[in-house]
From TrEMBL:
Residues 106-164 form the Sm domain. It holds the Pfam family Hfq. It comes from Desulfurobacterium pacificum. This is RNA chaperone Hfq. Gene3D superfamilies: 2.30.30.100. InterPro entries: Hfq (IPR005001), LSM_dom_sf (IPR010920), Sm (IPR047575), WH_DNA-bd_sf (IPR036390).
Amino acid sequence: MKKYKTLEDAQIELIELLEEEGEFRGTIKELAERLSVKPENIIPLLQLMKSSGDIVYEEIEEELIIKPASYIPVLPPLLNEKQTKEIEEKTQEGFKLIACSYMGGVQSRELRKAVGKRVIIYFRNGSRVEGKLKGFDRFCLRVRNYMGNILVYKHSVSTILYKE
């Protein structure tokens, strides 16, 4: 009997596939075999990933075309020299760069790794906030620090760092 992956594992594997190959073109059955999931789970998986902003896809007759959702920043990053230097120092200290305005692409996998960990979020207006990442969705991050729970809109973020 064939062992199937969980949908979360399939989601991560699809993200990695898209990062490596850029897009997927093929049938539902081909994608199901590639991800080791049941074919009936493919469409719900794709709908979930589309609603979270990870992918865009379309079905043309029997063929699926799946691409990573592209994030095109409307505003250029507004990091000042001090913040740029601080980010470089933090990455040398072992912090991981999750997202910044020039990266684009799929960020959910890195954000999932950072849930429950300390993050430093740099905003486009030059300010920053530190705290524990409690959760996220397509548009927002939920961070907890000494002031309480903070809702951060992703469009206002320039860069996110976290420590493993």
